[in-house]
Each structure stands twice: as structure tokens, then as C-alpha cells.
Design brief:
Largest sheet: none
CATH topology of the largest domain: Endonuclease III, domain 1
Shape: globular
Number of helices: 8
CATH class of the largest domain: Mainly Alpha
Distance between the termini: 35 Å
Strand content: under 5%
Radius of gyration: 16 Å
Helix content: over 70%
CATH architecture of the largest domain: Orthogonal Bundle
Number of domains: 2
CATH superfamily of the largest domain: Hypothetical protein, domain 2
Order of helices and strands: HHHHHHHH
Length: about 110
């Protein structure tokens, strides 16, 4: 098993140093902050995390406005009703990441 310290050291090397790494990390929200989040913002945050896995975070950041537009600002009703054809169309438009498994997860996560 790899120790967290080893992973952190590798990430710090990749970012330049520990300070630069920590600058990029986000702090977890408190329970009260999570309760205050609306469902659409929760789905947006969840989707962003899912898409950041395996991709450069800067790529996702640069495309995030397009994700918001493509998925109706992550309105739950809108996302739940998206057909596979609509999902594929959004993916093939070139404005969002082309990862079928991740794109396809959005309607399920909206439910």
C-alpha cells in the first residue's frame, strides 16, 4: 500500500513544491455549508469532481462554463430527461470532454 506522504510528495514534485500543491487544493465544506447548497450546485460540484479524475484540472476549469450550459446549469429535471442521443450530441460538440462513461453518469447522478 502506498502511503499518503508518498503520494503527496509526488504531487508536490509535479506542482513544483508543497506550497504550490496546497494552493491548488480545496478545503472540504462544513456540514452547514453542504446543507445550504442547492441540488443543482451539488450536482455541478459532483460532476466537476468526476470529470477532474483522470484529466488535467485546468482543462476542466477552462471548459466548465460549457459544461454548465450543456447541462442546463445542472438543473436536476433537465439532466434526468437527457436522452443518450442528447448526451452524445453534447459530447461530440467539442465544448465538453469526450468521455462517454462520465457524460452518461450525469442523468443517473441527477436522479
Amino acid at each position: 500500500m502506498i502511503l499518503f506522504e508518498e503520494v503527496e510528495a509526488q504531487a508536490a514534485l509535479h506542482q513544483g513544491c508543497v506550497a504550490q500543491l496546497r494552493e491548488k487544493l480545496t478545503s472540504p465544506k462544513s456540514a452547514s455549508q453542504l446543507r445550504e447548497m442547492t441540488d443543482d450546485r451539488y450536482l455541478s460540484a459532483l460532476t466537476k469532481i468526476i470529470f477532474q479524475l483522470g484529466f488535467r484540472w485546468s482543462i476542466i476549469e477552462n471548459k466548465w462554463q460549457s459544461f454548465e450550459a450543456a447541462f442546463g446549469e445542472f438543473n436536476l429535471d433537465h439532466c434526468q430527461m437527457l436522452s443518450e442521443e442528447q448526451l452524445e450530441s453534447q459530447m461530440m460538440s467539442g465544448t465538453i470532454i469526450k468521455n462517454w462513461a462520465k457524460v452518461r453518469s450525469i442523468p443517473s447522478n441527477a436522479v
